[in-house]
Amino acid sequence: MHRMHLPFLSWFRFSRLAVAGVMALSAAMLTCAAASAQDAKTLRIGFQKYGTLTILKALGSLDKKLGEQGIAVKWVEFPAGPQLLEGLNVGSIDFGTVGEAPPIFAQAAQAPLVYVGNEPPAPTSEAILVPKDSPIQSVADLKGKKVALNKGSNVHYLLVKQLEKAGVPYKDVNVTYLTPADARAAFERGVIDAWVIWDPFQAAAEKQLGARVLADGTGVVNNYQFFLASRDYLDKHPDVVKTVLEEIRKGDLWAKDHLKESVDLLQPVLGLERPVVELAAQRLAYGVTPVTREVLQHQQEIADAFYALKLIPRKLDVQQAAPAELR
């Protein structure tokens, strides 16, 4: 078995602790929010330890830009999209970034979120992985097999659509919900047959374990990365959100043209070997744009698919989470 480097193992241990403690942390933050009014001079951004927001944080350009306006930026780290949107739901953050599926589950839980922007499609940044010596050769072979994923994450929809394409009913696969940390451990031990995961976890499994990509999102899902704001914050501070999106756009343009430097910024944050970070960075999509009706229609299709599978309790109208100009 390939030995993981200590920083990577520490990261996974942190993820398990973060997932276990996020509910208690959210409750405490909710109490604080109820006790005092939000400081309008602080923007609280939820981010994950990867992606364009991580690069923007490292660059420091947003902090400088808003600082000139007397607004401080507080960066709050989350282990995955569902936990991040739980933070937005309880009022502990104002803005954040997640994949396609988390907003669907969050809206089903009546979170007051608004789609404000998205990155271009990145279909190769998520995949169904199997061990390098696995007898599984196609998605159809997953029937009756144990497949792990983080419930409510973007990869949840990837599995749904790949099974649909292969003609395998969702109910015929033993789907197990595990955090990335626990799924990685189960994958290494051979406890699961396949793992549906996103970068940089995906790139790490490929480079460190020799994991084989059974299928990614190419031709099946777009895998958009979304930027969302709480409705209350957006209504009160639309100019701040506009500034954030503009700084993300500038950061994207820089990162797209400076891949080596982007990797230099990401590597110490991730604690991963350079080849892993390089592979993941190459699969990132750069170029944030305001969300459009076409993109929201894609989200509606995801919501309808999840409702049909009874993964969410009610039928959603994604348009209700659209910015005012699209409603």
UniProtKB/TrEMBL annotation:
Superkingdom of the source species: Bacteria
Keyword set includes Oxidoreductase: no
A Pfam family recorded for this sequence: NMT1
GO MF annotation list: ATPase-coupled transmembrane transporter activity
Keywords annotated in UniProt: Signal, Transport
InterPro entries: ABC_SsuA_sub-bd, Solute-binding_3/MltF_N, SsuA/THI5
Record carries keyword Transport: yes
Chain ranges passing through the membrane: none
Domain Solute-binding protein family 3/N-terminal as annotated: residue spans: 42-262
Location(s) in or outside the cell: Periplasm
GO CC, any one term: membrane
First and last residue of the signal peptide: 1-20
Family: Belongs to the bacterial solute-binding protein SsuA/TauA family.
Task performed by this protein: Part of a binding-protein-dependent transport system for aliphatic sulfonates. Putative binding protein.
Name the UniProt record assigns to this protein: Putative aliphatic sulfonates-binding protein
Lineage: Bacteria, Pseudomonadati, Pseudomonadota, Betaproteobacteria, Burkholderiales
